[in-house]
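Reminder to self: keep the SMILES exactly as supplied, no canonicalising. Ligand is S-adenosylmethionine.
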Amino acid sequence: MLAYQSSPVQKLVTADAEINSFILPDEKNLDKKTVDSFGDEWSSFHSFDDAEIEKIGDEYFDIVKENQLNKNSLVLDVGCGSGRWSKYVASKAKFVEAVDPSNAVYVASKLTSNLSNVRVTQAGVSNIPFANDSFDFVFSLGVLHHIPNTQQAMQSCVEKLKSGGYFLVYLYYRFDNKSVLFKLLFAFSNVFRLVISKMPHGLKKIVCNLIAAVVYFPLAKISSLVKNIFGEKMQQKIPLFYYANKSFYIMQNDALDRFGTPLEQRFTKKEIEKMMIDCGLTEIVFSAQTPYWHAIGKKK
Ligand SMILES: C[S@@+](CC[C@H](N)C(=O)[O-])C[C@H]1O[C@@H](n2cnc3c(N)ncnc32)[C@H](O)[C@@H]1O
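Structure tokens returned for the bound complex:
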């Protein structure tokens, strides 16, 4: 466990824990509506199947090697949400500091309560309460595209890394490796997001559950069928094929994430690579597998 660099603004007391909060009234580089929406999302989705989390975790961490993350590693999870990836990483690392600015910290704290090497803290990316150059491994999965200035947010993450440490990031892709059909479908679906994300949480959840049932689930099943008949290459031409081996719970969660969030940005592989280089990362490796794009880089 690392020492905090400053004193917490307040302590959030729960039945099982005390969570230190460093959220400032004028928190920088944070979209309040988006953060509140995630607080609601993670209080609805927190009962993940352990085996499924291991399987999906392996997809995000497929490019991470033993010399980059191991039992000696001090790890920082930026935008931990429910804490599922902190839980996944806990068995592979020495200690995991998990931060998130939303009320998801209550969920994350509960999910990791039986892990002695995970601490959850409420903080935004621009005010992470640890000294610069203190972590061996920093990761941020599905977070930085929900932040107003993604480049600056990435810089804030990399600052926390020791020289020679590694940064793993997953950012929504701009369909740069997909056909025009995918791009058009995305533009169409984005109109729905702009409407749905403004709804109150209860209604948003109902609508997103419906989308999971009538869009995600059938496309996932069709893509499985296509894979069985025509193989993996053809399967990848079906939108949402990523969900072929995922549970309906994950589809519901991701539909809410995708359509319920006010701020989302998308990036090409080239743009992400440039951001990483500009942050002082080197030896950048992108995974060729879904979810697109996730990449790792080493701090110079
Ligand atoms: C899509 S969720 C991903 C959560 C988690 N990484 C996962 O993959 O399960 C995005 C998370 O980013 C967090 N977030 C939003 N703005 C942030 C900011 N300015 N600093 C740090 N985290 C932020 C949200 O609170 C939310 O929990």
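Points to follow up:
The pocket of S-adenosylmethionine is lined by residues 29-30, 34-35, 38, 78-82, 84-85, 100-102, 104, 124-125, 141-143, 146-147, 257 (CB under 6 Å).
The CA atoms of residues 49 and 103 lie 22 Å apart.
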